[in-house]
Amino acid sequence: ATMPPLLSAIANAGRHGVLVKSAVVMERLGQVDAVALDKTGTLTEGTPRVSEVRPLEGSDLDEAGLLALAAAAEHPSEHPLARAVVDAARERHLPVPSAHHFTSTPGVGVKATVEGRTVEVGAPDRLLTGSTAKDAERMARIVAPYEERGHTAVLVQRDGIPVGVLAVADRLRPDAAATVAALGTLSGTSPLLLTGDNPRAAAHLASEAGIEADHVRAGLLPEDKVDAVRRLEADGRKVLVIGDGVNDAPALAAAHTGIAMGRAGSDLALETADAVIVRDELTTVPTVVALSRAARRLVI
Ligand code: ADP
Ligand code: MG
């Protein structure tokens, strides 16, 4: 027997490196008329590297001590920034103490007990919510130069006191700009960038990827990504969300169709998404949207 068009489209998508979980999903892919992409791990390669280790004035830590402390707290995390920190410590052969009572907050960072002290590693403005305006301003001056270059600044606090800043640099995927352009053409609108990262790093990356400046939403918590998707859907749009992180899972679930990055994606994103990019290429997304449209023409 000849295969029904949607099933052969699923087989075809598989050959292009995309696992589409059902015929319903294969059909829905072709309906999308808006696209929202996550930044870290989706538009970027997701293998960021530590570019700077900076103990803060007044802290007793040197670079090695700061990096080892951050790596200890980040060790249990599966976030790409955490892997960058742990890898940097490993490359320098630093002894990394063990961590206890680990917790992580998507879009914020991690917290753990290291050598009897509370260590937090994460987004500077998110960790500094309780600090004075003067301290926040001082921190903003320290992190701005990194963020303007598109790097992500990560704050390290010990017992609630800032002890250092790490800068982490990620690269745009080589096929990001081509994919953004293709998805723009297929959906009829410029794709939206949804990120938990800071506005400066987001703007830098968006311009490299060809995303319009007014289509960038930065500093988002997981539920803010959901809100952004719901707002588009309230306008009658069928939104395709592409993401990789635990922080993207709610938006992947809320979207008309969700696609997760498979290679480095979190388990939760892979389970929540309707389709998974198995081969690590973003250009496969416009390909499967086109496959869906072709199959739908045969079905209808
Ligand atoms: P994105 O939406 O771009 O994938 P996330 O929502 O995962 O980004 O993270 C947003 C921000 O939260 C990061 O840029 C970082 O500042 C902070 N953050 C989240 N998890 C961690 C972590 N494990 N270590 C350090 N910082 C983190
Ligand atoms: Mg991500």
Report on the structure:
Helices cover 44% and strands 23% of the residues. The chain is of the alpha/beta class and 300 residues long. It folds into 2 domains: 170 residues, Rossmann fold (3-Layer(aba) Sandwich); 121 residues, 3-Layer(aba) Sandwich (Calcium-transporting ATPase, cytoplasmic domain N), CATH 3.40.1110. A 7-stranded mixed sheet has the order 1-13-12-11-2-9-10, sandwiched between helices. A 6-stranded antiparallel sheet has the order 3-8-7-6-5-4. Helix 1 runs antiparallel to helix 13. The longest helix has 16 residues. The chain is elongated and about 70 Å long. The model has no long low-confidence stretch (mean pLDDT 94). The site of adenosine-5'-diphosphate (ADP) has 24 residues, from helix 3, helix 5, strand 5, strand 6 and strand 7.
Lay out the secondary structure.
Blueprint: H1 5-15, E1 18-20, H2 23-29, E2 34-38, H3 39-43, E3 49-55, H4 63-74, H5 80-91, E4 99-105, E5 109-114, E6 117-122, H6 124-127, H7 133-148, E7 152-158, E8 161-169, H8 176-187, E9 192-194, H9 199-209, E10 216-217, H10 222-234, E11 239-243, H11 249-254, E12 257-261, H12 267-272, E13 275-277, H13 284-299
Parallel strand pairs: 2-9, 2-11, 9-10, 11-12, 12-13
Antiparallel strand pairs: 1-13, 3-8, 4-5, 5-6, 6-7, 7-8
Helix pairs in contact: 1-2, 1-13, 2-13, 4-5, 7-9, 8-13
GO molecular function, one term: ATP hydrolysis activity
Family: Belongs to the cation transport ATPase (P-type) (TC 3.A.3) family. Type IB subfamily.
Subcellular location: Cell membrane
